[in-house]
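Per reviewer request, we include the raw input and output of the structure prediction for the construct analysed in the revised manuscript.
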Amino acid sequence: MRLTVRDETWPIAGDFRIARGAKSIAHVVVVEIEDKDMVGRGECVPYDCYGESVDGVIAQIRTFAGQIDALTIQSLQSALPPGAARNALDCALWDLKAKRETAEVWQLAGLPRPTPMCTCFTVSLDEPTKMAEAARNAAHWPVLKVKLGRDGVRERLAAVKDGAPKADIVVDANEAWDMKLLEALLAAPPDGVVLVEQPLPAAEDAMLAGLRPPIPLCADESIHDAVSLSGLVDKYQAVNIKLDKTGGLTEAIATARQAQTMGLRIMVGCMVGTSLGMAPALMLSPFAQWADLDGPLLLARDRTPPLPYEDGMVFPPSRVLWG
């Protein structure tokens, strides 16, 4: 077998802006594992917030080049910690396994068949008038994820609701709020808001203990893998599971199963990447109440073939793409 790894850049359509900053290019790392005439592929997005870089992730992956024949999905879980590098390798190994065994990944993983999901479409943080315009352009989406910072929260939410009056709204603060701001919002919830994602910094989760919010709170930066779920008890009502955080589909499945046993609702989410990075996440559709898998739609172009999107829905991948 042969392992290859490369970095790719994909231009974003406009700017993608959250509380931490903006970017105009998606940097992804692609792994290919070749076995005769079969190739398994995986994609990850290194995230500097978690101490990752493109060069560092590529270096991690290249350490397996000389031992790729002995690497398995099972052995990989202890060979690397959760994170982007393990995600790309894990997904490539699942894709290759499916090709070898002429089966589909969901079957090999013992999962129900993946189903189409209604996915959020992201409205980036901007001036209220620009967010209203973005919402109008996306008003046909049933659910909008609205990126917010500390300032002008209600003004921006009102602008989005004015632009897309029929859409449900998922608020994503990316750790930018404090408890005072959160309590004020929960005391008089804005119209249309159905979920609030990661309002406080992860280090301040203890402040949420015992809170009974009228709108469910969803952990994102506070949840990485199944082990981290124990710290969320009595603080969050939902978790956002992303393969770049769990370190691949294998741990994502374990995390979803554990979250279910804890009574936590599940969002399956993504970083900004191509359809190759989203495809494995669709395997979690049987567990999830929400999907935030619009990463490819934020790009100026995508892979061929892409994931199918239609009428606010994302559909499971063709086997030509992955799995």
